[in-house]
């Protein structure tokens, strides 16, 4: 099937826009690459320090300059149910790598925050910045320059993005992402949400709420809704950074461990010494980023990726924006209905066909690039498979099922749930924002109502509990951008807003903050850019202004006359409580340097400035095979 013209156009304009920064990135990558083992560039003293604690036979391997050394960078902790299984992985990996005559070393840990624990709490104001902290911690681990390949252990929201951003700053090193899998299914997400709404109305006790939550989040593994964590997993599959189908295999099972061992061996294989050199900076290119956006839309993924994918792309010298997301969403069909976009969870999705089914459907429909590099070599078709346990205890792969096991959860591209991806760009005199409408009923896609402004989640909840919000209104939650208070998720407001919507009121939210990937039924224009603290016009809104949030026409407006609007002064707020306590004072540098949301709210520069002299006309085509280009690399290494 020929590539969809919009997919081709968006890809080409990204290539065009990124030409200078991607070329600079690839030049850095080639310059960092050492012929032979990376540790060859270290002094004997450096090396002695590096393997001082190694077992003798591992030390012997590293003294030779032929055996690859594999870094383990892990986000293990006991706090995230998703990351707890990583506790046992390092030994599994070391043993598996030894079997192929190489060495693995736990190079470093990275922090991991659980957004479920910090949701609605002060800690959430560190959440977004933890992504770049994780990227920096990854760099600290990899900066020992001892490694010829790396295994990145991470799953949740900012952790995979942070690890990938860090890994891309060592783009010359082959890297494989190693997941841990979802927890088994507890009570349904719908039951969980219903208990929360009853509690918010005072119709359920705290004991009933805790009972319900504990039946939902009940064991090791990733939470089973389709939020940012599981969106990450789908994107790692689509970008060919996982072994095929590794995402949604249950933790603590023989197949899970077999996949971890197989990933360890594969990392050695794609090292320079393994003979199938495939650096991660050549896997993440313009086409794989487009594939990731396509997969995000096809599965109703998290709005957080309109920040994280932008930051990941920039780490590889690639510049994408919300016009790219919007254009692709218009042509990519919705192939899944996983909570909050439906009642099923990721275990149901996996049973119905899983990531391999989605990848194949998108390739066959011409909606994704097949000619991309992956950890298996060249070509995405190899990732349309799912893993099984062979008789020898190793992984065998079979093609993903040709038909869906449950068309209430997963559908072919020929019979989608919707003809679009349900994520839209809305813009107007309030700035540019993102809306995910895949979980919003059509009757709520356009909301026009008076504004009520709030300067915190607490302010909103106090007025909700006092019964002051039982009306049609647009909640304008101000000063929630990265420079203000770290751009927290405002997902804790969902039960209250859902109750008001269920009571028949027309409600919507507009904010320069974020929502959770698990947020759904209430229309919300989020990530409003520029944020208020950067002079964004959202700061000019006053209570009573009529706000129109229109996902159907892509507009976000205050229906205020130009004269009145021009006379308005920017609102101000005392944000000091968000800058002290819970460690927030340590993150002042992130608040002061965060880029705008549409540039990923990132705290690191592009490899080089965007080449604004290059006309960003549609459909421009890039001469392939430019020296140092991806095509040139492919020719040189895959001949
Ligand atoms: O972006 C996300 O997917 C969310 O941050 C998610 O990781 C977080 O844990 C939610 O808060 C979970 O939803 P509940 O709070 O509804 O359990
Ligand atoms: S999915 Fe969210 S709540 Fe669940 S472990 Fe990950 S960060 Fe925590």
Automatic annotation (TrEMBL):
Keywords: 4Fe-4S, Carbohydrate metabolism, Gluconate utilization, Iron, Iron-sulfur, Lyase, Metal-binding. PROSITE patterns: ILVD_EDD_1 (PS00886), ILVD_EDD_2 (PS00887). Binds 1 [4Fe-4S] cluster. GO terms for molecular function: phosphogluconate dehydratase activity. Residues 67-381 form the Dihydroxy-acid/6-phosphogluconate dehydratase N-terminal domain. Residues 620-639 are annotated as: Disordered. It comes from the Bacteria. It catalyses: 6-phospho-D-gluconate = 2-dehydro-3-deoxy-6-phospho-D-gluconate + H2O. Its EC number is 4.2.1.12. Its cofactor is [4Fe-4S] cluster. Residues 409-601 form the Dihydroxy-acid/6-phosphogluconate dehydratase C-terminal domain. Coiled coil: none annotated. [4Fe-4S] cluster binds at residues 156, 223. Pathway: Carbohydrate metabolism; Entner-Doudoroff pathway. Belongs to the IlvD/Edd family. PANTHER family: D-XYLONATE DEHYDRATASE, PHOSPHOGLUCONATE DEHYDRATASE. Catalyzes the dehydration of 6-phospho-D-gluconate to 2-dehydro-3-deoxy-6-phospho-D-gluconate. This is Phosphogluconate dehydratase. It comes from Massilia hydrophila. The gene is edd.
């Amino acid at each position: 099937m020929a590539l969809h013209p919009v997919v081709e156009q968006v890809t080409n304009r990204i290539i065009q826009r990124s030409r200078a920064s991607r070329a600079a990135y690839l030049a850095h990558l080639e310059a960092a690459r050492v012929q032979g083992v990376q540790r060859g560039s270290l002094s004997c003293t450096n090396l002695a320090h590096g393997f001082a604690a190694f077992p003798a036979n591992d030390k012997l391997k590293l003294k030779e300059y032929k055996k690859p050394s594999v870094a383990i960078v892990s986000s293990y902790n006991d706090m995230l149910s998703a990351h707890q299984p990583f506790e046992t992985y390092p030994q599994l990996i070391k043993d598996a790598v030894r079997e192929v005559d190489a060495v693995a070393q736990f190079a470093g840990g990275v922090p991991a925050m659980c957004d479920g624990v910090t949701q609605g709490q002060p800690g959430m104001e560190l959440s977004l910045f933890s992504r770049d902290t994780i990227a920096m911690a990854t760099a600290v681990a990899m900066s020992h320059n001892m490694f010829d390949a790396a295994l990145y252990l991470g799953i949740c929201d900012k952790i995979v993005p942070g690890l990938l951003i860090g890994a891309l700053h060592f783009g010359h090193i082959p890297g494989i992402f190693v997941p841990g899998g979802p927890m088994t299914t507890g009570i349904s997400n719908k039951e969980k949400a219903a208990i929360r709404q009853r509690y918010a109305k005072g119709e359920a006790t705290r004991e009933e709420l805790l009972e319900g939550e504990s039946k939902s989040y009940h064991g090791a593994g990733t939470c089973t809704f389709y939020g940012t964590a599981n969106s990450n997993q789908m994107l790692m599959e689509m970008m060919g950074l996982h072994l095929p189908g590794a995402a949604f295999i249950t933790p603590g099972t023989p197949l899970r461990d077999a996949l971890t061992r197989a990933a360890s061996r594969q990392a050695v294989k794609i090292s320079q010494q393994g003979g199938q050199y495939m650096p991660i900076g050549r896997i993440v290119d313009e086409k794989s980023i487009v594939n990731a956006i396509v997969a995000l839309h096809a599965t109703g993924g998290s709005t957080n990726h309109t920040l994280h994918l932008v930051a990941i792309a920039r780490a590889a010298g690639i510049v994408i924006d919300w016009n790219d997301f919007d254009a692709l969403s218009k042509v990519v069909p919705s192939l899944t209905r996983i909570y909050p976009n439906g009642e099923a969870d990721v275990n149901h999705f996996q049973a119905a066909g899983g990531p391999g089914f989605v990848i194949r459907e998108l390739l066959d429909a011409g909606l994704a690039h097949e000619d991309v590099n992956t950890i298996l070599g060249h070509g995405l078709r190899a990732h349309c498979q799912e893993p099984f346990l062979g008789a020898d205890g190793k992984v065998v792969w079979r093609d993903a099922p040709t038909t869906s096991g449950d068309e209430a959860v997963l559908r072919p591209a020929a019979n989608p749930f919707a003809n679009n991806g349900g994520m839209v760009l809305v813009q107007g005199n309030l700035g540019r924002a993102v809306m995910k409408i895949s979980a919003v009923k059509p009757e709520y896609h356009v909301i026009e109502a008076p504004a009520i402004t709030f300067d915190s989640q607490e302010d909103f909840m106090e007025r909700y509990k006092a019964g002051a919000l039982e009306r049609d209104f647009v909640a304008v939650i101000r000063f929630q951008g990265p420079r203000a208070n770290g751009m927290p998720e405002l997902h804790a407001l969902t039960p209250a807003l859902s109750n008001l919507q269920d009571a028949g009121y027309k409600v919507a939210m507009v904010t320069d903050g974020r929502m959770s990937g698990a947020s759904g039924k209430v229309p919300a224009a989020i990530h409003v850019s520029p944020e208020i603290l950067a002079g964004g016009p959202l700061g000019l809104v006053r209570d009573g202004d009529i706000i129109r949030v229109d996902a159907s026409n892509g507009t976000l407006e205050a229906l205020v006359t130009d004269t009145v609007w021009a006379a308005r002064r920017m609102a101000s707020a005392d944000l000091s409580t968000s800058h002290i306590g819970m460690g927030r004072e340590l993150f002042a540098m992130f608040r002061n340097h965060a880029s705008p949301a549409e540039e990923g709210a990132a705290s690191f520069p592009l490899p080089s400035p965007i080449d604004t002299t290059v006309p960003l006309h549609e459909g421009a085509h890039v001469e392939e095979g430019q020296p140092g280009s991806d095509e040139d690399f492919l020719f040189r290494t895959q001949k």
